Amino acid sequence: MNQGRPKIAIIDANTLSVLGLKQLLQTVMPIMTVDTYGTMTELMANKPEQYMHYFVAMNIVLENRAFFSQHQRKTIVLTLSLGGSSQLAEFHSICINVPESELVRQLLTLQQMGHSDGRNLPPMPKILSQKILSDREIEVMSLIAQGYINKEIADKLNIGLATVVTHRRNIMDKLGLKSVSALTIYAVTHGYVDINKI
């Protein structure tokens, strides 16, 4: 079923961190298959060259510098602090010790930097590229993704609060999403909201 889909590997011993990042990555890039490994040994035993990207804990990159330096463009280092590490300046990095909304923003920025307009990715399945939402639902979704609350959305669009709540529920149901973060990811990756507005 996943044959032919691009793959991402997460290499990190922190199981909770890995599970959360895997869910976010699958939301940001639904076309991807995400595999997880607790150690470098596990990755090496599973054809590491098959992966489009490696999301790797900083300590694993430092311990296996030669491998990741050869795959510099594919490697994204998972750091715990916002300050850049001069040791790892050659790699792209994201800080995982931030609120969910900021982590989503970092992932979307990274995705747009490397794969804007689907560059270097296979085409999306037709079902994912069809227009699912009405124009009004798109307006509401855009405002939700930008951080507006229901009352502010109602005021901006000159509609009732109950109407906003109904649109919000319909949007989440139609897209099969369960959180504002997932909705934000959908809105940005489908071009409904500029990443700089979230």
Describe the structure.
- By secondary structure, the protein is α/β, with parallel strands linked by helices.
- It is built from 10 helices and 5 strands; from the N terminus they run βαβαβααββαααααα.
- The protein has a 5-stranded parallel β-sheet.
- The two termini are 34 Å apart.
Shape annotation? elongated
Residue runs with pLDDT of under 50 for 5 or more positions: 115-122
Order of helices and strands: EHEHEHHEEHHHHHH
Which percent range describes the beta-strand content?
5-15%
Distance between the termini: 34 Å
Quick summary:
By secondary structure, this protein is an alpha/beta fold.
Give the SSE map.
Layout: E1 7-11, H1 15-28, E2 33-37, H2 40-44, E3 53-57, H3 58-63, H4 65-70, E4 75-79, E5 92-95, H5 100-115, H6 126-129, H7 135-145, H8 150-157, H9 161-175, H10 180-189
Parallel strand pairs: 1-2, 1-3, 3-4, 4-5
Helix pairs in contact: 5-10, 7-9, 7-10, 8-9
